[in-house]
Design a protein that fits this description.
heterodimer, A: eight-stranded mixed β-sheet, six-stranded mixed β-sheet, 19 helices, about 35% helix, B: mainly alpha
């Protein structure tokens, strides 16, 4: 143990009580953290990374069993009976959580929440605390900080809230920060800013940081050392460059291989000549959501789609990329008619899809199917999965049950599951399996078009890779046309032929995947690409481009064959 | 564990099958155990009244009048010399029947309205739910009284009145439970697959709101029993000589000084029954709650 060692965790084991038995979620974990160092703990869900953080902060549920020791400032912070330890946890260790909204109290002002800890610990009086809070808000890059103390959390955006959380933590001048997935809930451009901020803080104040994350890109960009965990145990620990360049453990290798990359192996986009009869054509789609306020008037209209037009050729995969609030999911739901639009047309297979009604609409729906983001809620919990998959078959084809059953078996095999699984309920499956079931349901009515709304974002990275491979294979085998909605440019690069970049309900850039990813033209696309964390610590970090403020983009202009950019 | 959207499968997911674990969890909670015990005893009494009752409940002069509880007549006799124990036992049959029928009618109608409103949205939703709101603004008893006034006093009409008065409550509860389900992706996935309204409401919506509604209905049985007993007490429900608890309570009012047990015993019976159903409802809720699952 060197003199600069800040935190020494030895043989940490955590057991949780479930169903009257103990499950070990962390076993025999040891690591050390030095000053001015960022140690990333990486793993997929169930790896025990969050439980490790919670154990250190004393936030484990009652009945958890902790063994081992964690020396912080010559005190074992795992011996949590000691009052002294509580004080050290409060002032010496700061914690930043994933969800900045739920970590702040919505009914108290930011100022009150920020200064509370200072006052409680007797470190400052109110006036002094306010002054320091303002300084700290300024430090984390919040504009006009003196006016902010009286504001409430809902007046801040997600990224701003996370900045406030960081400021709040830093006010207590901790020696160690534990950040549990600090950017997972944020958009990629905001994530880049927050990561830069965290790195700056560590560099300036020479504190140590424990960064818990599932994202290899985030690790590569921020961490000095990396600890890879799997099922509660350490798999590998190494410096970040070593780990990415020369991973030792097979699991680390597999994990790194599964991470989609922006450079390297782009799907070679196939050329789809503009035919006169695209299989899907969207013309001038408009949708606005109005929030009712007051008794009579409707106010606060938000335009979710502004004059969106695009067309997809048969067999082509068009990706729609954008951050939250860009209107990409609204577009998906408008095309599948899960919501009604204000104006515009959707032409599927030479049929005006939005004009159909009743029986003919239900029939036409079989041509265009959807895959949802959340595999947990997209299957009826009360249906055996065989029945779920059978449903579209029964609705559209008048065939006997034994025939339908055969089709279900074939569909299950097609997505890499086995026919005997048809008799189980959704909760008996893992997330990746459920997404496979959802895919087979979408295929059941033999659709021409599949609309996939973030189908892999709720999945672990290794599962994501498998599901993407499955979609790629199905696309080839069945020559499916796909509309692939995603926020992740690297994923998009793997699967799509063309990409449309959306923001504030408009398409800003549309073109072949390689052109968009390698030679983006619109300032927003450039910003989006530069913000995406890349899983390669060796690479020179791209220049962060500040987000351009665009109110209303002009019409699309073709700058090269097939590459359209908004003016 | 701190992943993006690792939702725990909700209440609906795992309560799907009335798994053996469900009943085990139910009797493990004190509320559920006592509630189940009381309701089971009630059901035994109701079904076994023919064998358990020592006398004919409506036969006058089974014994002397106003006999206090004793060895021959365990709960005493009333003003006509009828055996109180037998009347209470037969009364339990009526009480359960009233509770079941009234809740059955309000639950069915209410759920249908609630599910249709949540599924259709638009003007249908507005009309149905605003009507429910209007009915809500009157006391249930008042609506029941108005119904009986129109239909005329009889036990059947009292039950019908209680059922009608209960509809808005079940409609509203079912409506809000349905709204949650309707917005879930699995629901949209089936619509996108081309499923029609009938399939959506009865195959997807109904099974998913049912657990919630069973809890609500169990709690509602006690309200219905109380309301029906209240109507009988006012002379608008059961007519003589039916051994209905509410009516027995009313009929013995004149003898409260002379024979206090005549009023006390039906009162206690009603109270215990109501308590039993409330505890059972509470137990159901706990046993179906995934958060309570591992306790």
């Amino acid at each position: 143990m060197t003199s600069t060692s800040l935190l020494d965790v030895e043989n940490l084991s955590v057991g949780l009580r479930s169903n009257r038995s103990m499950t070990t979620v962390v076993s025999d974990l040891s690591f050390h953290l030095k000053q001015s160092e960022i140690l990333a703990i990486v793993g997929e869900s169930g790896s025990g990374k969050s439980m490790t953080a919670k154990a250190l902060m004393g936030l484990l549920p009652a009945g958890a069993r902790i063994t081992g020791s964690a020396q912080f400032k010559d005190v074992d912070i795992l011996a949590n009976a000691d009052r002294n330890v509580q004080a050290i946890r409060g002032t010496g260790i700061g914690m930043i959580f994933q969800e900045p909204m739920s970590a702040l109290n919505p009914v108290l002002t930011i100022g009150l929440q920020m200064t509370e800890a200072l006052r409680v610990h007797g470190l400052a009086n109110q006036a002094d605390a306010n002054k320091r809070a303002i300084e700290m808000l300024d430090r984390v890059g919040i504009s006009a900080p003196h006016t902010r103390l009286g504001q409430y959390p809902h007046e801040f955006s997600g990224g701003m809230r996370q900045r406030v959380m960081i400021a709040m933590t830093m006010l207590l001048e901790p020696d160690l920060i534990i950040a549990d997935e600090p950017t997972t809930a944020l958009d990629v451009t905001v994530q880049a800013q927050i990561l830069d901020l965290l790195k700056e803080i560590v560099a300036e104040t020479s504190i140590g940081m424990l960064l818990i994350t599932h994202d290899m890109g985030v690790v590569a960009e921020t961490a000095d050392r990396v600890l890879v965990m799997k099922q509660g145990s350490r798999v590998e620990e190494a410096g970040v460059r070593t780990l990415f360049a020369d991973p030792m453990a097979p699991y680390t290798k597999a994990l790194l291989a599964a991470v989609p990359r922006l450079d390297g192996n782009l799907s070679s986009p196939s050329e789809f000549p503009d035919s006169d009869a695209p299989i899907l054509e969207v013309r001038n789609l408009e949708k606005s959501f109005s929030k009712k306020s007051g008794f009579w008037r409707t106010q606060a209209t938000t335009k979710a789609l502004k004059n969106v037009s695009l067309s997809v050729q048969e067999g082509e995969t068009l990706a729609i990329v954008g951050e939250s609030g860009s209107g990409k999911s609204t577009l998906a739901r408008a095309i599948t008619r899960l919501l009604t639009v204000d104006s515009g047309r959707v032409i599927v297979n030479n049929q005006d899809f939005l004009a159909l009604k009743g029986q003919s609409l239900r029939k036409a729906r079989s041509d265009i199917q959807m895959i949802f983001q959340d595999p947990y809620s997209s299957l009826d919990p009360r249906f055996k999965i065989g029945r779920t998959i059978e449903e579209p078959i029964h609705i559209h084809q008048n065939i006997e049950s034994s025939q339908a059953r055969k089709r279900v078996d074939a569909l299950l095999e097609q997505v890499g599951l086995t026919p005997d699984m048809a008799d189980r309920y959704p909760h008996e499956f893992s997330g990746g399996q459920r997404q496979r079931i959802a895919i087979s349901r979408a295929l059941a009515s033999s659709p021409k078009i599949i609309v996939a709304d973030e189908p892999t974002s709720a999945l672990d990275v290794s599962i994501q890779a498998q599901v993407l491979d499955l979609l790629l294979r199905l696309k080839k085998e069945l020559s499916l046309t796909m509309l692939f909605i995603s926020h992740d440019l690297a994923v998009v690069g793997k699967i799509s032929d063309r990409v449309a970049v959306m923001r504030s309900g408009q398409i800003l850039e549309l073109g072949p995947t390689d052109r968009i990813l390698l030679d983006p033209q619109h300032p927003y696309t450039i910003a989006l690409l530069s913000a995406a964390p890349s899983p390669d610590p060796e690479r020179e970090h791209r220049l962060r481009v500040d987000l351009p403020h665009i109110k209303d983009a002009g019409p699309l202009r073709e700058i090269q064959s097939g590459h359209w950019v908004a003016t | 564990m701190g992943e993006i959207t690792v939702n725990t499968p909700g209440l609906s997911a795992e309560s799907t099958q009335a798994s053996p674990g469900f009943w085990r969890r139910l009797v493990r909670t004190p509320n559920g155990f006592i509630g189940l015990l009381i309701v089971t005893i009630l059901i035994v009494c109701a079904f076994g009244a023919d064998f358990l009752a020592p006398y004919n409940p409506t036969k006058m002069g089974s014994g002397p009048r106003f006999l206090p509880p004793g060895s021959d007549f365990l709960l005493g006799t009333d003003e006509f010399g009828r055996d109180m124990l037998s009347r209470i036992l037969y009364g339990s049959r009526l009480t359960l029947l009233i509770g079941a029928v009234a809740v059955g009618i309000s639950l069915t109608a209410g759920m249908l309205l609630g599910m249709v409103a949540a599924y259709c949205r638009g003007w249908i939703e507005t009309v149905l739910m605003r009507s429910a709101d209007i009915l809500f603004s009157f006391t249930e008893t008042l609506i029941a009284l108005a119904c009986v006034a129109v239909l005329g006093p009889s036990l059947q009409n009292a039950v019908l009145a209680v059922s009608i008065a209960g509809i808005p409550f079940y409609a509203r509860t079912c409506y809000s439970a349905s709204l949650v389900e309707v917005s879930k992706p699995y629901f949209e996935a089936s619509i996108a697959a081309g499923a029609g309204p009938f399939r959506m409401v009865f195959h997807h919506l109904l099974p998913n709101v049912l657990p919630t509604m069973i809890v609500v209905a169990t709690l509602g049985v006690s309200t219905a029993i109380l309301a029906a007993a209240g109507l009988s007490f006012l002379g608008l429900g059961a007519q003589p000589p039916t051994p209905e608890w509410g009516y027995m309570l009313a009929g013995s009012r004149d003898y409260i000084n002379r024979a206090p047990w005549l009023m006390t015993i039906p009162g206690i019976a009603i109270a215990i029954t109501v308590l039993g159903f409330n505890l059972l409802g509470d137990g159901f809720r706990t046993a179906l709650d995934p958060k309570e699952r591992d306790r």
